[in-house]
Amino acid sequence: MSLPRNVEIIEVGPRDGLQNEKKTLSVELRVELIERLAKAGLKKIEAGSFVSPKWVPQMAGTDLVLDRLNDNQALMSKTGVRYAALTPNLKGLEGAIQHRAGEVAIFSAASESFTQKNINCSIKESLQRFDAIMAQAQQINLPVRGYVSTIVGCPYEGDIDPLKVAEVAKHLYQMGCYEVSLGDTIGVGTPLTFKRMLEAVMKEVPVNKLAVHCHNTYGQALANIYASLQLGISKIDAAVAGLGGCPYAKGASGNIATEDVLFMLNGMNIQTGVNLDEVIEIGHWICNELERDNQSKVAQAR
Questions:
Q1: Which of 17, 149, 219, 296 is the most exposed place for a label (fewest CB within 10 A)?
Q2: 255 has which bridge partners?
Q3: How many whole angstroms from its chain centre is CA 292?
Q4: Which residues contact 265 (CB under 8 A, 6 or more apart)?
């Protein structure tokens, strides 16, 4: 068994986490959260989403957040951090370009039912919508990251065929996504189902172009991440303090906590360049601002 010597943590708390929190934070607090995470060593951070505030009010003001972050060139130069924005359509891409996002993200799913209910189209149609985004982004050399949701299970369809995940991931990679993040949206994956899914995907997409995005709904996220490491995955999405919920499982936690991933990786002598103690401190602070419990087991133990 050969594990990666280095792992990159992609911090998704300020976007995927906050968009599922009941309380909406001010632009100032969101900027402070992101900059503190950058100072802790996280070099790739989801800063926001260019979606309609009508549907995701927690992401209103992403343009202002990016403006404030880009104004702090000293921090960006010192840390090498890159700020990402989710862009579901051309209008979102234009906003991301105007406000100087370092990269953008597009998303589809491996479940037809989930795609229909989430963005009102088929998987094929969702991928076709991205052609214009990819073309425009490539013209200005703007990196695009792809997301595939419901990679193991779907709240409407149940188990998902690994070959379907591989098909969608392959399409995103071939259309130009520099990296494809595989998301266990409802957190039902186990190490066995994760390995089966990854083995199928890795036949279509190089392992160094893949990341995993695990929700901890059933407490399986760390086990699934470990299984992914065993197959050579070296990029992991995580959210400080386990921010976010799971809208398809009442009362369930959402993203795996960055602190918990770091603790495991540190114990395995895998380098991340991220300061665990500082992330723990940030997690306690932001949970206090959100008036919610910290979902990180490591933070609770400290």
A1: 219
A2: 215
A3: 21
A4: 7, 272
Cut 0.85: pTM above it: yes
Query: Tokens 């479940």 label which residue?
Result: 111
What's domain 8-301's architecture? Alpha-Beta Barrel (3.20)
Residue 170 φ then ψ, to 5°: -60, -45
DSSP label of 255: B
Beta bridge pairs of residue 181? 147, 211
| Chain position carrying tokens 């632009």 | 27
CA-to-CA dists, residue 195 to 199, 202, 227, angstroms = 6, 10, 7
Q: How many CA atoms lie within 13 A of 138 on its CB side?
A: 10
Domain boundaries defined on the chain: 8-301
Query: Which residue, chain included where needed, has tokens 């949970």?
Result: 287
- Partners of 119 in the β-ladder: none
Active site residues: 246
In 3D space, the residue among 238, 234, 218 whose CA is nearest the CA of residue 226 turns out to be: 234
Q: 């979102």: which residue's tokens?
A: 92
Task: Write out the two tokens for 114.
Answer: 């989930």
* Token output for 116: 């229909």
Going by C-alpha positions, the residue among 171, 199, 194, 174 that lies closest to residue 183 is 194
Residue reference for tokens 């500082």: 278
Residue 245 is which amino acid? Answer: G
pLDDT in tens, 145-195: 999 999 999 999 999 999 999 999 999 999 999 999 999 999 999 999 999
Residue with tokens 């963005």: 119
Q: Tell me the per-residue pLDDT of 188-200, one tens digit each, with 9 for 90 and over.
A: 999 999 999 999 9
Number of Cβ within 10 Å of residue 181's Cβ equals 24
Contacts with 37 (C-beta within 8 Å, 6 or more apart), sequence order:
11, 13, 14, 45, 240, 279, 282
